[in-house]
Amino acid sequence: MKNPxxxxxVPTPEGAAGGTPDLTxxxxxxxxxxxxxxxxxxxxxxxxxxxxxxxxxxxxxxEVRTGEFVCLLxxxxxxxxxxxxxxxxxDSPDHGTISLDGQAIRGPDPRRGMVFQQPTLFPWxxxxxxxxxxxxxxxxxxxxxxxxxxxxxxxxxxxxxxxHYPWQLSGGMRQRVALARAWLPGPQVLLMDEPFGALDAQxxxxxxxxxxxxxxETGTTIVFVTHDVDEALFxxxxxxxxxxxxGRVREIIEVPFARPRTxxxxxADPAYAPAKRRILQILREESGHLLEEINP
Length: 296
Ligand SMILES: Nc1ncnc2c1ncn2[C@@H]1O[C@H](COP(=O)(O)OP(=O)(O)O)[C@@H](O)[C@H]1O
Ligand SMILES: [Mg+2]
Prior knowledge:
Blueprint: E1 7-10, E2 22-25, E3 33-46, E4 52-65, E5 69-73, H1 80-88, E6 95-100, E7 103-104, E8 112-115, H2 127-131, H3 133-137, H4 142-155, H5 171-183, E9 189-193, H6 201-218, E10 221-225, H7 229-235, E11 238-243, E12 248-254, H8 263-268, H9 272-294
Parallel strand pairs: 1-12, 5-10, 5-11, 8-9, 9-10
Antiparallel strand pairs: 1-2, 3-4, 3-6, 6-7, 11-12
Helix pairs in contact: 4-5
Bound molecules: adenosine-5'-diphosphate and magnesium ion (MG).
């Protein structure tokens, strides 16, 4: 394996010894690994008559610990959604292997829940019925899942909206329904693709705090795609920085802030600015590559 888990950058407060990133190679202990991607490559047909192949992911190596919150960050089009789709089992890699608890991922499974940017609720179903859709379709007894569906609605602050319809809710409320729905089967892993990207800044903060709280209570492993640097620093244990064209793991940033986190505490933390600056620098470099492709 060329790149066991990529380089890890641990941000240090400004003025700390050296000033240069501390690049070390670390290996996640085997017992705690939940998700493992080894040498993963993926290409798609493109161009005239789909005759060419576009390599979207190349040699992706990544290990995610059980209960860890990992953010994927990188320029648009670098393959973040493709990584999530492979983890969800919606698609399969051309090269390499992807496993969850040592078992190869071969297709979708309710143990790996997915939350998209658009909540994709059924407009003809009530909030409660949307949350309970999965187990009902699986033919389970309503007594098994309805109490849990109601408890989750309470947890996301929508208890009073159980009998409302999606069109009667705001965007943030709809996304909270999607969150409750994803959590109902008690997923081992939650895959989130820019879930708060379409929300206004204020609502996004509320959703981030809510997600942080549920994650801490449930111990679910989360892989969260975002292009929002502050969001990644607020939520993540580690931030996987991806490079573009082809998508690779460029660097992994350990987020140094203690939990529980608040936006205020983060801003006051001396490690915040250096970490944010480092991430922005990488994003700028990677976007530069994109610009070169547009203007060769
Ligand atoms: N099913 C597909 N068929 C062809 N090309 C695809 C498909 N899915 C993604 N791509 C291409 O792969 C690249 C990465 O896409 P994506 O994973 O959506 O990036 P990101 O989520 O980082 O913005 C893009 O160039 C996109 O056009
Ligand atoms: Mg995407």
